[in-house]
Write a structure and sequence with these properties.
single chain; mainly alpha; 3 helices
């Protein structure tokens, strides 16, 4: 049951996160294209918001990685057979 939940959470995150990021990027691009005369936006506010979004995505990636590791442990699959070296694991950027 836990493995199924982990799989569903992973799939949901893989499908939902790109859609959210695309939507946010589209909204920002539309706001920038409107120009300063029609509802301009504060650049500092946009950068702060994008920073928070980036941190949230990084945190979700870490949670997905943790769920994946827990799923592997529950299924008893040895880590070496899955092709993941410890050096690759250290490439994940931690949230600020």
């Amino acid at each position: 049951m836990i493995a199924l939940l982990a799989i569903l959470a992973t799939i949901a995150a893989v499908l939902i996160v790109p859609m959210i990021a695309t939507s946010v990027a589209r909204n920002v691009a539309e706001a920038v294209n409107r120009g300063p005369g029609r509802g301009s936006i504060d650049q500092d506010m946009v950068e702060a918001r994008l920073g928070r979004i980036e941190e949230a995505i990084d945190a979700m990636a870490l949670q997905i990685e943790t769920l994946t590791d827990q799923q592997r442990a529950l299924l008893g699959a040895p880590r070496d057979t899955l092709g993941h070296a410890e050096s690759e694991r250290s490439r994940t950027e931690r949230p600020r």
